[in-house]
Structure formats: C-alpha cells, structure tokens
C-alpha cells in the first residue's frame, strides 16, 4: 500500500516556487529520507502532506486520504516532529505528553514515552522552559510517537541531539518501521539519513532531483568516477549535459566536476570542455555519497541523459 503519493504537487508564493511539480511515492512501512539544502522545499512539502498549506496545483494523498480536504483524518493517524517545536514554557514534559495522548485519544503511558526517548524522569517533571535544545527535541519525538501513528513525519529530528540521542532516534525509527509505520525523515544532513533510510529523495529548488534506494545510489557511485577539470573560462551549465554516462556536473568558477560512469564518458566530458574552452588540467577521484548529494543540490539543474539528472552548479558547498 502507498503511504504518500503526490502528483505534480506545486506550491507558489507569488513568483517563488517553494515546491514545483513534485511526483513522489512512499510505500507503507518504508523509511524514506527526504534530503535537500536549506530552502529546497522540504518543510513546505511537509505542510502540504498535513494540509497546513493548500497546494497551488497538483494533488497529495496521505494514508489513502486527500491531504488537503481530509487533513483532520490524516493528522489523526500521523505523528509529527516539526522543525522548531512550540512549547508551553510553564508546563512539564509529562503535561505535554498527556495533552498529546488526550488529543489523539490514545492510551499511552507518559512515563514509558519519557523512558523511550531518554528523558530523565526528574526532568520530565520540570517546566520545559528550562530545557536544553536536545531535551526539547527528545520531548518532541515523544509527542510524535503518541498513539502509534501509521505515519511518522520527522523534520530535522537530529537537530540538537547529542550522539547518544541520535543513536536512540535511529533505534526508534527502526522499531517504528518494524511495527509497520512509515517514516518520512527530512533533513539537510545526509549522514543522519543514510544510516536509517531505505530510500532517499533529494530536493533542490523545489524539485525532486533524484529518488533512489540508498544501496543503488551507493552502487552507482561505486561504478562512477569524478573527473575534475580546470578550464580557461567557466563554461555554460549545459556544456557537458546530455553525455551518456554522465550523471552529475558541477561548475565552480573554472573548475568543472563531472560524475562519469564509463571511460568513454570521461573522454567525452574532456572533449566537450575542450570544444567550449580549453582544459588546462584534470584529475579523477572516487566519489562519496556526500559528493553525490553536493552534485545534486548545487544551484542549477539540467536534464541529463536517459532521464537522469545532470547538475550544473554555481558555488560548491
Ligand atoms: N510563506 C512564504 N513566502 C514566501 N516564500 C516562502 C514562504 N515559505 C517558504 N518560502 C520559500 O520557499 C522555499 C522553500 O522553503 P522551505 O521552508 O520549504 O525549505 P526547506 O527545504 O524546508 O528549508 P530548511 O532546511 O531551511 O528548513 C524557500 O526559498 C523559501 O524562502
């Protein structure tokens, strides 16, 4: 069964497109990593999934319901850890959990949740106004877990967590998935997503630039070499687009980097660059998943061969 399905989902603010023609499917029980740099459109997508914003165009179905017109039903079966969790400073963690349990008409034991997220039981009796960022984040995770939701939406859940908190988060995500819940894990940090997610989608400038199983992404990276060429003049972004076997291109001033799947692709990239300008030097290196993320999220994206996406960027990150 499908947990999330968006079709041509678009949200504009004036001329700005926060989300632009998003086609995304997340299956039930999947742990899906939703990646992208700041401003890519991740939080807006989450708002659309839960009916907090109305799409400008397109449609969004969550847990079999129209997320815009049946938002109440969707939210009742979803646990959300929002970015920037709003707290009632004078209330305790237990108070927050109790009110979430009541709102969801659930029968969870607040103390069990406190223990599960690793909050100190004494801290859980203190007003949350005194909490550190990590303690707040643990509470926010606890609130999201109330009622054993069918879908967990976690927006930057590792933010503020220490290493033991991050480990606990990963264990909870795995346990929730084993229980049958779908987990939608949004982050701008690849390292936090790659350790728990089955599949990742990468957003840039409101568009989904790639979606794949992590293992397949890794396998494609294993077979890929990055060619880094220093050229006389910065080429046009599409100078090396459309070459078979080239899946990611970044341009940073006079340095062009291209992920090449074959030796022919490497030679073709250098030939094309020599046609457009003059190659002064070049090097090759085995790429990391981090490099792939960088390539996909650099500033400008153009269509590549075979439906793949070649990315031409401005500043390297
Ligand atoms: N209400 C709004 N009015 C105008 N522009 C907006 C509005 N909300 C979002 N945007 C723009 O839409 C784009 C996507 O924003 P969004 O918050 O969804 O990104 P994000 O991927 O969640 O970023 P971050 O990782 O920083 O939270 C940004 O360029 C943002 O400036």
TrEMBL record:
It comes from the Archaea. Residues 4-230 form the ABC transporter domain. Keywords: ATP-binding, Nucleotide-binding, Transport. Gene3D superfamilies: P-loop containing nucleotide triphosphate hydrolases (3.40.50.300). The keyword Lipid metabolism does not apply. Transmembrane segments: none annotated. CDD domains: ABC_DR_subfamily_A. SUPFAM superfamilies: P-loop containing nucleoside triphosphate hydrolases. GO terms for molecular function: ATP binding. Belongs to the ABC transporter superfamily. This is ABC transporter ATP-binding protein. It comes from Halosimplex aquaticum. The lineage of its organism: Archaea, Methanobacteriati, Methanobacteriota, Stenosarchaea group, Halobacteria.
């Amino acid at each position: 069964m499908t947990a999330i399905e968006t079709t041509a989902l678009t949200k504009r603010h004036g001329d700005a497109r926060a989300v632009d023609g998003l086609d995304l499917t997340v299956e039930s029980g999947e742990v899906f990593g939703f990646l992208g740099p700041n401003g890519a459109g991740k939080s807006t997508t989450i708002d659309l999934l839960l009916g907090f914003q109305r799409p400008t165009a397109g449609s969004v179905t969550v847990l079999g319901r129209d997320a815009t017109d049946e938002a109440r039903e969707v939210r009742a079966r979803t646990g959300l850890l929002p970015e920037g969790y709003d707290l009632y400073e004078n209330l305790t963690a237990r108070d927050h959990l109790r009110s979430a349990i009541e709102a969801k008409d659930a029968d969870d034991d607040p103390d069990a949740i406190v223990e599960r997220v690793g909050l100190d039981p004494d801290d859980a009796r203190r007003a949350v106004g005194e909490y550190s960022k990590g303690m707040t984040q643990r509470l926010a995770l606890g609130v999201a877990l109330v009622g054993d939701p069918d879908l967990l939406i976690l927006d930057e859940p590792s933010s503020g967590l220490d290493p033991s908190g991050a480990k606990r988060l990963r264990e909870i995500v795995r346990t929730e998935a084993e229980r049958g819940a779908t987990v939608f894990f949004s982050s701008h940090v690849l390292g936090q997503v790659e350790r728990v997610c089955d599949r990742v989608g990468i957003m840039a400038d409101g568009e989904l630039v790639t979606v794949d199983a992590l293992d397949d992404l890794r396998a494609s990276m294993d077979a890929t070499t990055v060619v880094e060429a220093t050229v006389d003049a910065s080429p046009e972004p599409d100078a090396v687009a459309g070459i078979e076997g080239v899946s990611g291109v970044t341009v940073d001033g006079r340095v062009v980097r291209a992920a090449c799947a074959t030796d022919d692709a490497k030679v073709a990239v250098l030939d094309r660059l020599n046609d457009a300008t003059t190659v002064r030097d070049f090097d090759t290196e085995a790429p990391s998943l981090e490099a792939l993320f960088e390539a996909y999220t650099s500033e400008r994206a153009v269509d590549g061969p075979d439906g793949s996406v070649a990315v031409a960027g401005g500043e390297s990150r």
